Predict the 3D structure of the following.
Amino acid sequence: MLALAAMVALAAADCHNRGAAASGKQGDAPATAAAVVDASKRQAREVVDGRVRVALLLPLSGRHAEIGRGLLDAALLAQFSFADDGFVLMPFDTAGSAAGGALAARDAVAAGAGLIIGPVFSEVVAAAAPAALEAGVNMLAFSNDSAVAQPGVYLAGLLPETQIARVVDYSLRRGLRRFAALLPAGPFGRRVGEALRAALAGTSGRLVVTRHFGTDAGAGDAREAVRALKAARDGSLRFDTLVVAASGDRLSELAAQLGYFDLDAARVRFLGLANWSSPRTGQEPALVGSWFAAVPHAHGAEFRKSFEQAFGTLPPPLAAAAYDMAALAAIGAPAAGQTPFDRAMLTGADGFAGAGGVFRFLANGMSQYLLEVREVDSRGSRVLEPARRTFGPGGE
């Protein structure tokens, strides 16, 4: 296993005294996204003999620019921590659009990138993939949409399928058997439903009822969906476990309706997704006692500390993934004459240990993370079952 997280603490000790430029050469102060974008545009079109060039496709302009800048900062932190002067990180702006992603991928290939990290958003990944694959360049994309995964396009996001499989397995081992699902209408809800059915296949568990709510906020459809679940449970479709695929304001609306209809965690065990790790979830009384699977919180502690020291702010969502992908590229950079970032290296069975947890890429482009199971409490959540440490036998 290529251990990335083990080196984060060492880098944190002096990251506030040093910085990184797009070429990988260390400077006197921490780099920021704004400080390197213009220089990287010029440098990206240079051919630097003997250097490993890795492209970073991010929305650095447009309405998602703030996301892109945060991910670039995280990648620069990893470059500073792990790369040497033979490593070149080349940011390209996708503007958050499919057309921008396709153009950025073509520019990255033309600049001699041996690996592409990014882009963000599934539609941008799909648009960027053809240019990369045609050139034989693998991608580590910031998406959890299995529809865009394929050999050579590996998803760095935490997939809902992984989360559902983990928390359902835990629930079955705790004696829960009859499952219901409260899912959003649309593709994501279908994915969660399929993941739930797959997790229950061949087990003693059974999915007895599914209800859907609209993706836009509104108490009316949430109320009707929960009312239907209450009627099912009071009738012949009794269930002891309810998977709720929602977060943020939508989860708050659903929690209020679940409490109103006496479907709270005292009567039914709720199962959620990793984004339930937000302290806000525990502020909903109906959800206290719920279970969900997430990457181990302890894995990202040093990264969060390093990021805050370097940039004066907490890392945004996906920042740990950007850090890990850049660290993977820097540590796994091939020596002269070796094939750059080939699929055998990227899909090794042992995987990688990073700030975002222990993960590996599968040959079909999907990813797997080793997750812990947590329980929501009024202060946030607590660990019920730790994550395995490795993918191999005896990894507990």
In short: The chain has twelve helices and 18 strands. The domain at 2-157+298-365 is CATH 3.40.50.2300 (Rossmann fold). The longest helix spans residues 65-82.
